[in-house]
Design a protein that fits this description.
There is one protein chain. This protein has helices spanning 20-28, 65-77, 96-105, 118-125, 154-158, 173-182, 212-219, and strands spanning 4-9, 31-34, 50-53, 81-86, 109-113, 139-143, 163-167, 190-195, 203-208, 225-229. By secondary structure, the chain is of the alpha/beta class. It has two domains: 4-113, Tetrapyrrole methylase, N-terminal domain (Cobalt-precorrin-4 Transmethylase, domain 1, 3-Layer(aba) Sandwich); 118-234, Methyltransferase, Cobalt-precorrin-4 Transmethylase, Domain 2. It starts with a strand and ends in a 16-residue tail after the last strand.
């Protein structure tokens, strides 16, 4: 597998949510460049690979993206089977597209392997369907953290009529609340705050748009967490939590 990089989504945390294609890539890997939020249990599928941590966390010291690019290129040009292992899905707030573009510009083949994103897994574990006939006909995924600190069009999001799933929003809950209220969203719109999606220590806090910031403080909500904002956040569908033998 000369001069090729696999961009692999490890899913939201539960190692059982890893796809078969991701497992196949990991088994072939010689180098695995791993993000901070990837569950270490996933590495059982690549016991002989060299593990290279290249994590990024908000508010913490992070590996520069330019360094990650150069390192992937170096290993690929050495003929190594390289896996860039990312939490969630590589193309949902995971820089997968920009890494793929950069590698291809330098003559490196890239294969993308999708992973389950935290917004979907966390909501499902809480019994929340992101779409529901007669209630929510769509879902919008957004990040509250942008590279250039630009603002989203919160008015359009408030009036869009879809379930809103917000990533990386814990530090900006008050701003999100104020922006959506100013955009016309109802103060009593249901909200679910979900921490550590899909993991055994997942926690959830149900609230409303107006109260979510204060409730999150009382709940001591911490990253990584996602917000589900919309009528579906009031649902509590029964979940079969028992493990499959």
């Amino acid at each position: 597998m000369s001069a090729k990089v696999w961009l692999v989504g490890a899913g939201p945390g539960d190692p059982e949510l890893l796809t078969l294609k991701a497992v196949k890539a990991l088994r072939q890997a010689e180098i695995v460049m791993i993000d901070d939020l990837v569950n270490p249990a996933v590495l059982e599928h690549c016991p002989t690979a060299r593990i290279v941590p290249v994590g990024k966390r908000g508010g913490c010291r992070s590996t520069p993206q330019t360094f990650i690019h150069r390192l992937m290129l170096r290993y690929a040009r050495q003929g190594k089977c390289v896996v860039r292992l990312k939490g969630g899905d590589p193309c949902i707030f995971g820089r997968g597209s920009e890494e793929a573009d950069w590698l291809q510009q330098h003559g490196i083949a890239v294969e993308m392997v999708n992973g389950i994103t935290a917004g979907l897994a966390g909501a499902s574990n809480c019994g929340i369907p992101l779409t529901l006939r007669g209630v929510a006909r769509g879902v919008t995924l957004v990040t509250a953290h942008t590279q250039d600190d630009s603002s989203l069009n919160w008015q359009a999001l408030a009036q869009g009529g879809t379930t809103l799933v917000v990533y990386m929003g814990v530090a900006k809950l008050a701003d999100i609340r104020d922006s959506l209220l100013a955009g016309g969203m109802c103060a009593d719109m249901p909200v679910a705050l979900i921490e550590n999606a899909s993991l055994p220590h997942q926690r959830e806090c149900r609230s409303s748009l107006a109260a979510m910031h204060q409730d999150a403080l009382a709940f001591q909500l911490k990253s990584p967490a996602i917000l589900v904002i919309g009528e579906v956040a009031a649902t509590h569908q029964a979940q079969a939590m028992a493990s499959i033998a």
